[in-house]
Write a structure and sequence with these properties.
Blueprint lengths: L2 H43 L33 E6 L2 E6 L15 H10 L3 E4 L6 E8 L5 E7 L1 H51 L15 H56 L6 H32 L5 E6 H15 L5 E5 L3 E4 L1 H17 L7 E8 L2 E8 L6 H6 L21 H11 L3 E5 L7 E8 L14 E2 L1
Parallel strand pairs: 7-9
Antiparallel strand pairs: 1-2, 1-5, 3-4, 4-5, 6-8, 6-13, 9-10, 10-12, 11-12
Helix pairs in contact: 1-3, 4-5, 5-9, 6-7, 7-9
């Protein structure tokens, strides 16, 4: 059973209880007023000088408080009549709203039967819409005497009570109906709307959100919580989709990079098997090319393994590393490998926590990119400074520079600025990806910028300065990352 149905059933039970209560109150009030009328009739019938035989009351006992022989009634409210030759003759008419000619509508046989039974009963009046409460008896001469009291006041009181109860019941039901509508509007309707939203989301529309409800209500708080949860779920699904797409591109790019050297090695092997390398010089050249391609494959596999280890956040041993010394060593290597690129270094002593080999790989990759992707003779600058509790390492070249799209995609794996993916324009496209992964593992940041004068490209790395303590006496020692 739904909450709405339960509330409606409860409303129906309340309405039934109010109706039953009104009926009981009306019935009790009517019986009480009738008992009062009966008591007045009995007291009047017991008055002195009547000469009549007093009939018993409706329950066979005189009413409480009645005193035989004492006239407690008034003639203005009593009807008195005598049955003469089968005709009821009025001897005393009450002051009734029905008129002075009002009398009980009672035949001779009914009066005789009522006298024999000795009961007090209600009969209609000769005037429409009026009633009498009557009792009969016999005088000493055997005549049938009819005494009655009009029930106009009793009926008017009951009618007013019924009207009051009806208005009160309808008012209470109206108030309960408004409360029910308010509860359904603030409680049940939001739940139904959330259910519909959940069904839409379950159908696949992760961008759908739960409608907002009135602030300050539980439905509003629940809606805000659900929407926040849906934001996280949608972001997680989007991230998973992006990761899957990135993985597919990663596999495709890795396959593409490995296909060329594998094809080369396989071609030389087939050529040798077919006897095409009988000449020793040609065989030596083929072996040199095969070795070069094997070295390329080994370097690519090593880069992939490095990225896999960094992605898995494997625990490594870290030590305080002098960034200025590592940068100086990397610059020396660049001068040997690319002597046609003048290098300027401005470094100051700075220490970070990390792996010296990985940090050397980061600086070497940045310097190699600066030398490979710029024309011969392009100057390269290296700077190491400390600013605001961080070490800032900058590698800048004065070449043609990179556009905004290239800067935004440079750290993606296997991304290369040359769509042809020619070896003459660079390596496998993993160098900057490895740089970003290593810097992130050292809790640092890396970005590419265009200098203010618009000439060349500048790679900026920021790392937290090492806080040396007892674990690193005199700047040495090691600890897990």
């Amino acid at each position: 059973m739904t909450l709405k149905t339960r509330i409606l059933v409860a409303m129906s039970l309340v309405a039934a209880f109010l109706v039953a209560t009104s009926w009981v109150v009306t019935r009790i009030t009517s019986d009480h007023l009738m008992d009062q009328v009966d008591a007045q009739l009995v007291r009047f019938a017991s008055g002195p000088g009547g000469g009549q035989r007093i009939p018993p009351s409706s329950n066979g006992t005189p009413p409480t408080g009645s005193t035989p022989g004492k006239d407690s009634g008034t003639y203005s409210s009593i009807y008195a009549g005598v049955l003469v030759d089968g005709v009821l003759e009025t001897r005393l008419s009450p002051e009734s709203t029905a008129g002075s000619n009002s009398a009980p509508s009672l035949t001779a046989d009914e009066a005789i039967d009522l006298a024999q039974r000795g009961t007090i009963e209600t009969v209609n009046s000769t005037v429409k819409g009026s009633r009498y409460r009557v009792m009969t008896g016999a005088d000493f001469d055997g005549n049938i005497i009819v005494l009655g009291m009009p029930l106009d006041n009793v009926d008017a009181t009951i009618n007013r009570l019924t009207t009051t109860e009806l208005v009160t019941t309808l008012s209470v039901l109206f108030v309960l109906g408004m409360i029910l509508w308010w509860v359904l509007r603030l409680g049940v309707r939001p739940v139904r709307r959330m259910t519909e939203a959940a069904a839409t989301i379950a159908a696949g529309d992760l961008s759908h959100r739960v409608p907002e409800e009135a602030p300050g209500t539980e439905a509003h708080e629940l809606g805000v919580a659900l929407n926040a949860m849906l934001e996280h779920i949608e972001a997680a699904f989007a991230e998973r989709a992006a990761t899957e797409d990135k993985l597919r591109r990663f596999v495709a790019d890795a396959s593409h990079e490995l296909r060329t050297p594998v094809t080369t090695v396989r071609g030389y092997a087939e050529l040798y098997r077919m006897g095409g390398l009988d000449d020793p010089d040609r065989l030596d050249a083929a072996m040199v090319r095969t070795e070069a391609e094997a070295i390329r494959m080994g370097r690519l596999v090593e880069d992939l393994l490095t990225l896999a280890r960094l992605d898995q956040h494997q625990r490594v041993r870290v030590v305080p590393v002098r960034v200025d010394k590592v940068a100086t060593d990397a610059v020396s290597d660049l001068r040997v490998r690319h002597p046609d690129h003048p290098v300027t270094e401005r470094v100051e002593a700075a220490t970070v926590l990390g792996n010296p080999d990985q940090l050397h790989q980061v600086i070497a990759n940045l310097l190699t990119n600066a030398a490979v992707h710029t024309p011969t003779g392009t100057p390269v600058e290296v700077e190491v400074v400390q600013r605001d509790g961080r070490v800032r390492l900058t590698v800048r070249d004065h070449g043609p520079g990179m556009d905004d799209e290239a800067i935004s995609q440079a750290f993606e794996r296997f991304w290369r600025s040359d769509p042809s993916r020619s070896r003459a324009s660079g390596g496998s496209g993993l160098g900057l990806s490895i740089v970003a992964a290593i810097v992130e593992s050292m809790r640092g940041t890396v970005r590419l910028e265009r200098p203010s004068n618009g000439q060349g490209t500048m790679a900026v790395i920021e790392l937290p300065i090492a806080e040396l303590g007892p674990a690193y006496p005199n700047g040495s020692g090691s600890a897990p990352l």
